Amino acid sequence: MFLWYDGERLEVNRVELLDQYIVALLTAFKRPRKTPFLYAVMTGRRTGQAVTDVHLAKINSLFGLSPFLTEEVLTARLKKLRHAGILDIEAETKEWSVQKSVATPFFELEGWNGFWLQERPLLFFQNLLLAIQVVSNKHHKKKHYMPVVRDKKAQFWIKKWLVNFSKAADLNERLFLELEAWLSKPYISKPEFYTDQFSGGEIVGETLEQIADAHSLLTEDVYFESLYGLHRLFLEKDDYPLLRLLMPRREVLLTLSGKKTYGFLKKGYDFDEIVQMRNLRTSTIEDHFVEIKATFPSQAVPRMPEEMIVDEIQARDFLSLKEIKTAFPELDYYQIRLAVVAGGKA
């Protein structure tokens, strides 16, 4: 199987895309990792270690690309890669490492933006599927139908979205033109991976599984290819005024507790006041500020190191926080973590 991205021919049949993803992560981390850590990174669980270490390894772009991955599937894939001689596991520490170099071209493509997107492209696509159904059925004067997306948040989003175009007689045409422009981009190798999911009029969209079967592909391969196109769309969102309004904001990426701390920070409360008001440990609030700084790079947070120090830490290849502490003993570990995550550009 061959795919085309921006004129580049990629052969991806040697290593399945989920396996490529695993190998790409382990290669980038440069030191062995345990299964629970890999699982946290791949599913986008924003633990303190996961957030810090992906920034240390400078692979923010690959964070959280498979939020629906199960531990059972990951364990099975790790064992398969070990059997193939690509990975090995240390018996005592239970840590995985790469034993045989494998090309991972799909995850080296420009445009991945995992840490700052995570599930946002998937939520957007839910909104898009419902928007297309509603606009299409309105065009066909079909008033009674079951919504293709049952999620109440998505349904409420589309109701608000439609308010913006209550007087627009050409909404159907405008939406079609934006979709046509996006799906004609050279990085979209298979437009039908998206369009075959669309519903409207008498057409009922297919599932990823059905599309994968029709193309004799694995479901996860279709998923990753579709996800890449969505990541690229988010980077170009200013070119698509209708589609942009279907995209969730970055606030959805914060943990529930982190979001509450972010709210107090935006209101102007200082560190000690937030600790007291939230009635949480200082270390927990520090975790929140690290998460906030990683998600909103331009957001000011308490006790941020000087820009010159941050730039120096960003420019060097540290493998651990301990190494940074040795080089910058004047910083505590909270400040070090802030400096590590501060280099992002969402």
Domain tally: 3
Report the span from N to C terminus: 33 Å
How many strand segments? 5
* Helix/sheet category: mainly alpha
Count of helical regions = 18
- Sheet-strand content, in percent, reads under 5%
Stretches where pLDDT falls below 50 for ≥5 residues?
A: 1-13
Q: What form results from the Cα inertia axes?
A: globular
Global mean pLDDT: 91
Binned, the helix content reads 40-55%
Instruction: Report the C-alpha radius of gyration, rounded.
Output: 22 Å
Spatial strand arrangement across the major sheet: 3-5-4
Major beta-sheet overview: 3 strands, antiparallel
What is the string of helix and strand elements? EEHEHHHEEHHHHHHHHHHHHHH
Task: Give your account of this protein's structure.
The chain has helices at 17-29, 35-43, 48-56, 71-83, 114-117, 120-139, 152-163, 171-183, 192-195, 208-214, 219-235, 241-244, 256-266, 271-278, 282-295, 307-315, 321-327, 333-341, and strands at residues 2-5, 8-11, 33-34, 87-89, 95-98. 36% of the residues are buried. It folds into three domains: 2-117, Orthogonal Bundle (Arc Repressor Mutant, subunit A), CATH 1.10.10; 120-249, no CATH class; 254-341, no CATH class. It is globular, with a radius of gyration of 22 Å. It is built from 18 helices and five strands. It has 346 residues and is mostly helical. The longest helix has 20 residues, at 120-139. Helix content is 53%, strand content 5%. A hairpin with a 2-residue loop joins β1 (2-5) and β2 (8-11). It has a three-stranded antiparallel sheet with strand order 3-5-4.
